[in-house]
Write a structure and sequence with these properties.
Length: 302
């Protein structure tokens, strides 16, 4: 049986700003918040406010943002036919015909070149992390995103490489507990996103057919437990070293509250768009601010 014909492209009235807006939409600026993980290791080390550390972290953030933009352009160009048959993705600029496929690939290659040039200017270890990220996301876009379990590990690996990249760029030490925190926390967010996608059939990924609801819930519980334990181990390892650092142990309370709230929202059908959820729920925002104030005071007022 032949594949069903693609639905007609959505009608979009051209304007003078349409090309720029289309490129910006494809670059997905709302997703750039993920690259804040670059600052995680230097912030956790208490050294982020040092000028040289802050400058290198900012360069690393810019490089990873360019790398992510490259991934978005290349991925959308590769998926253009499938996106045109999708009820939501057909409105993406490349699928809608606002950006040509060849132009999108060239834009992606250009963004990748900028990212690599910036990474090399920072240092070799950071460049290795960024190249690893580009290779991982490239393999994901090439087909690994359709393999159950592996695709979740790849997305979580991208978060882990951001954290490792931030440590490499700023040359700060990072504990094994902190890296485990990043790994389990990333897994929790990715699994929560898959749960949210299963709850919205019209936006389902093909790979979701490989996951049962029970498996997703079990894996979410595993990742949530690992996140809490890794954070507690990282925070408690500093007890007794400085008078202000017990506050880091206290920060477990708002951290746990935020995770419990997020888990509740996911169980209620949210989680498909974590970047929106994290910035719109008042409970999450309040818990996040309290956690940031507590952990920040512990690390920077010591």
């Amino acid at each position: 049986m032949s594949a069903p014909p693609a639905p007609p492209l959505p009608r979009i009235t051209p304007t003078a700003s349409a090309p720029a807006a289309a490129f910006l939409r494809t670059a997905r600026p709302r997703q750039w918040i993920k690259n804040v993980l670059i600052f995680a290791a230097p912030a956790a080390s208490g050294q982020l406010l040092a000028p040289s550390v802050a400058i290198h972290a900012a360069l690393a953030f810019t490089a990873f943002t360019a790398a992510a933009i490259a991934t978005y352009f290349v991925n959308d160009a590769a998926d253009v036919e499938a996106d045109r048959r999708h009820p939501l993705k057909r409105f993406r600029p490349i699928a809608a015909g606002l950006i040509g496929r060849r132009t999108a690939v060239l834009a992606g290659v250009g963004a990748a070149a900028i990212a690599i040039a910036l990474a090399v200017a920072v240092n070799g270890m950071f460049a290795a992390c960024l190249l690893g990220y580009l290779a991982l996301t490239g393999a994901y876009s090439a087909g690994l995103k359709h393999i159950a379990v592996l695709e979740v590990l790849i997305v979580a690996g991208g978060f882990l490489l951001r954290t490792a990249g931030g440590a490499a760029a700023t040359r700060v030490g990072v504990s094994s507990w902190f890296m485990l925190l990043t790994l389990f926390g990333s897994l929790f967010l990715v699994i929560a996103k898959r749960i949210g996608e299963q709850n919205h059939a019209r936006a389902r990924r093909r790979v979701l057919s490989g996951y049962s609801a029970d498996w997703l819930r079990q894996t979410s519980t595993m990742a949530l437990t690992g996140t809490v334990l890794a954070y507690a181990a990282w925070a408690f390892q500093y007890l007794g070293h400085d008078v202000a650092l017990p506050l880091l142990a206290v920060s477990i309370v708002p951290f746990l509250a935020a995770l419990m709230r997020y888990s509740l929202l996911v169980a209620g059908g949210d989680g498909e768009r974590p970047e929106d959820l994290l910035m719109s729920d008042r409970f999450l925002l309040a818990a996040g601010l309290i956690w940031a104030a507590t952990a920040g005071a512990a690390l920077y007022l010591a």
